[in-house]
Design goal:
This protein is an alpha+beta fold. It has two domains: about 10-170 and about 350-385, Aminopeptidase; about 175-345, Gcn5-related N-acetyltransferase (GNAT) (Aminopeptidase). Helices cover about 40% and strands about 25% of the residues. The protein has helices at about 30-45, 55-65, 125-140, 185-190, 190-205, 220-240, 250-265, 310-325, 335-340, 360-380, 385-395; strands at about 10, 25-30, 70-80, 85-95, 100-105, 115, 145-150, 155, 155-160, 165-170, 175-180, 210-215, 270-275, 280-285, 290-300, 330-335, 345, 350-355. The strands form three sheets. Strands 1, 2, 3, 4, 5, 6, 7, 10 and 18 form a nine-stranded mixed beta sheet that branches. Strands 12-13-14-15-16-11-17 form a seven-stranded mixed beta sheet, sandwiched between helices. Helix 1 (about 30-45) runs antiparallel to helix 2 and helix 5 (about 190-205) crosses helix 8. The longest helix has 22 residues, at about 360-380.
């Protein structure tokens, strides 16, 4: 853990001329437990993705962040005159490759990194630059800011960090769908071939003893299902010659904490497809009540593969949650073939790699060069997602 003299830092930006631009007060909290109440308030009254929910962040800081020596830097920004919330940033500082780096609380676990937008969040490039200058001044000195997988918009509102100079497209967009109120209308919007495949999967599964989808409500039962998901994911990844990163103790502890607190709060959803006593497939995701984001998917192999259990547990879960009023389903990053059948649409994600010292310039320049090559290829219709990126996503999420 990096040295930290205090748990709280408060920096006020100088007063701007009267005409003018807002003046921001920036406070940095280094103790996630001390920040938990304010994080919850910011999330409840602001705009964010489910990956900035208090339960997700508290579990992450207590497990993955602590194990990987990531110093918490939770940034609260308010507008001085109105005292309205501007943004809240769940960040960390750590050593990477001999450089001090500030990044989001992620380390391969969080699908979308974004600020929690308050009512006073800026919506123009100039205002975003003013806000960023205030935040940088308050943060500790580092070599690099590395912000990846940021949505360009958060629930239709501009992400101020995505408006800054130097942003570049992420390796992969996110994939999501906003559904109509009529479930049958959604099904008929899918291709005839995919509808037939879903129907075939359901018929084959029913022959094996009944297609039973259950939503797990008990934290104790969920804790018993996580090892089964791990085993299924491990077996699938070993088939393609990969290791499962989730076998690492700190990552497993994260998901244990997530289901322990999230199931009761209703922010974590775990569904399983069973045949008798056997769990054939399982899907873990997070929700804010209107949007469901898929986090981990596992399914049994061998003879079960012929029915497409992963596809079936997704469809059955979507149908059940649609009945509960959820209309936005997020399949996250990774352009895997199974996603296209569900009618998902890509949503832009961007990266910001900003050098703050001579040590960071080489890394930042390399990142910008890769982004420029990617943009050039995309202009001629070539989509480039490095295999290493796909492999890393599979290693953490088990999807394929």
């Amino acid at each position: 853990m990096l040295e930290s003299d205090t748990l709280y830092d408060t920096v006020a930006t100088p007063r701007a001329p009267a005409a003018s631009r807002p003046v921001y007060d920036v406070e940095i909290v280094r103790d996630p437990e001390a920040a938990s109440g304010r994080l919850a308030a910011a999330f409840d009254t602001g705009t964010a993705t489910p990956f900035q929910a208090p339960g997700w962040l508290s579990a992450w800081y207590a497990t993955v962040g602590a194990a990987r020596e990531a110093e918490p830097l939770i940034v609260f920004v308010t507008e001085r005159e109105t005292r309205q919330s501007v943004v809240t940033l769940p960040l960390i500082r750590r050593r990477e490759g001999g450089r001090d780096v500030i990044a989001f609380a992620d380390l391969g676990v969080t699908d979308y990194n974004a600020p929690i937008l308050g009512p006073a969040a800026p919506a123009t490039a100039q205002a975003a630059r003013d806000l960023w200058a205030s935040i940088v001044k308050a943060l500790p000195a580092v070599d690099l800011f590395v912000f990846r997988k940021m949505p360009a918009e958060v629930r239709g509102r501009p992400n101020p960090l995505a408006l800054l100079r130097g942003v570049s497209p992420s390796h992969s967009p996110g994939f999501a769908i906003h559904m109509p109120d009529d479930w049958d209308a959604y099904l008929h919007s899918l291709t005839k071939k995919f509808r037939k495949e879903l129907g075939r999967s359901l018929r084959l599964f029913e022959k094996e003893g009944g297609a039973d989808l259950r939503r797990i409500e008990s934290a104790d039962e969920a804790q018993a299902i996580l090892p089964i998901m791990n085993a299924q994911q491990r077996a699938r990844l070993e088939e393609v010659g990969q290791a499962l990163a989730l076998n690492e103790e700190n990552y497993y502890a994260f998901y244990q904490a997530l289901v322990r607190t999230g199931l009761e709060a209703g922010t974590t959803i775990l569904t399983v497809l069973t045949a008798g006593d056997e769990i054939v497939a399982a899907l873990l995701g997070v929700t804010d009540g209107t949007s469901f984001a898929m986090v981990r998917l596992s399914h049994a192999g061998a003879d079960w593969m012929k029915i497409g259990p992963g596809r079936l547990v997704i469809e059955r879960t979507m149908h059940a949650l649609h009945d509960k009023g959820i209309r936005h389903f997020d399949f996250s990053i990774g352009d895997y073939p199974y996603k296209s059948g569900f009618g998902v649409q890509p949503g832009p994600l961007v990266d910001l790699v900003s050098a703050q010292s001579w040590r960071g310039r080489t890394s930042a320049a390399r990142d910008l060069a890769k982004a420029a090559v990617k943009r050039g290829l995309e202009r001629i219709g070539v989509s480039v997602v490095p295999q290493a990126v796909k492999d890393r996503y599979r290693a953490y999420h088990g999807s394929d």
